[in-house]
């Protein structure tokens, strides 16, 4: 009776191992596809394209000709909806305003998705 149960368990473990190993050979996990879509520095966006991302649920901003998708940060923004004032547009002036602590300069890189088309 133990042999069939053991055979099923070994099959499950082997199948799981094969799936994990196949994903790791590609160098990314299954949930990394969205990250790959916005590979740092590989994308260039026009102002027209960026302007479409101007909502709380889809918020891109431009800071010094770099494009950032800050959608996931909108609800956490300590300044409330102020982050939406320039959603889909250039936020350089507001970003470098006196209201921001120096830690925002380190945080912003996490949201970088590409460059502004010049």
UniProtKB/TrEMBL annotation:
Domain Cytochrome b5 heme-binding per the UniProt entry, residue ranges: 42-117
Entry-linked PROSITE patterns: CYTOCHROME_B5_1, CYTOCHROME_B5_2
UniProt keyword Acetylation, yes or no: no
Cellular component GO terms, alphabetical: membrane
Record carries keyword Nucleotide-binding: no
Signal peptide: 1-15
Keywords: Heme, Iron, Metal-binding, Signal
Molecular-function GO terms, alphabetical: heme binding; metal ion binding
Name of the protein described by the UniProt record: Cytochrome b5 heme-binding domain-containing protein
SUPFAM superfamilies: Cytochrome b5-like heme/steroid binding domain
Entry's family note: Belongs to the cytochrome b5 family.
Domain of life: Eukaryota
Species for this entry: Cannabis sativa (Hemp)
């Amino acid at each position: 009776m133990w042999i069939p149960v053991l055979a099923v368990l070994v099959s499950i473990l082997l199948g799981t191992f094969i799936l994990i190993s196949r994903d790791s050979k590609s160098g990314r996990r299954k949930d990394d596809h969205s990250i790959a879509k916005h590979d740092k520095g590989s994308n260039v966006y026009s102002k027209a394209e960026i302007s479409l991302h101007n909502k709380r649920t889809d918020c891109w901003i431009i800071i010094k000709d770099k494009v950032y998708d800050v959608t996931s940060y909108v609800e956490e923004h300590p300044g409330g909806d102020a982050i939406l004032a320039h959603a889909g547009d250039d936020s350089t002036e507001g970003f470098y305003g006196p209201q921001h602590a120096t830690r925002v300069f380190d945080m912003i890189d996490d949201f970088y998705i590409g460059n502004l088309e010049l």
